[in-house]
ECF transporter S component (Folate family)
Amino acid sequence: MSKNNKTVTLVTLAFMIALEIILTRFLSVDVAGIARIGFGFIPVAMVAIMYGPWFAGGAYALGDILGMLIFPKGAYFPGFTLTACLTGIIFGLILYKKEITWKRSLLAAVIVVVTMNLFLDTYWLHILMGQGFLAMLPLRVVKCCFEIPVQAILIPLVWNKVFKRIPMARNAAAGNAKVA
């Protein structure tokens, strides 16, 4: 990778991390302190499509840490950073170097929302808040029922209608981060 390509990659990742922080911290809704509905998944999915699972996992983890440092909402808990990292990795494993279709997006959304958001995040909240795991599940299941279709629709929509039209993003997704 040339120096120019590394710079483009670094700037793109920094922009996507900043966008993730904005979408997660400012354009999301907290529900009863145990559920957050937001759009922070969009930049992470775009990084996963363009750069793969490891960059997406690292970017989401870094976004979580920076978001917590800059705009704290309670104490930092590394479990949520682990969830963020695993979410980026899952998106990357399913979406990287693949055609971004509704079915593939639905698969990614179901796996991420059910395993990461419903079970793992609920477990972290159980540890943090001392509430019963099963007591928190009903509200979190409702949240996940909304989240799956939103993710399944927005990921291919944003990629195919916005990012795919940007030459740098299209080239990065093709494995060639050249500036067109």
Observations:
- The longest strand covers residues 29-31.
- Residues 3-173 form a domain with the Arp2/3 complex 21 kDa subunit ARPC3 fold (CATH 1.10.1760.20).
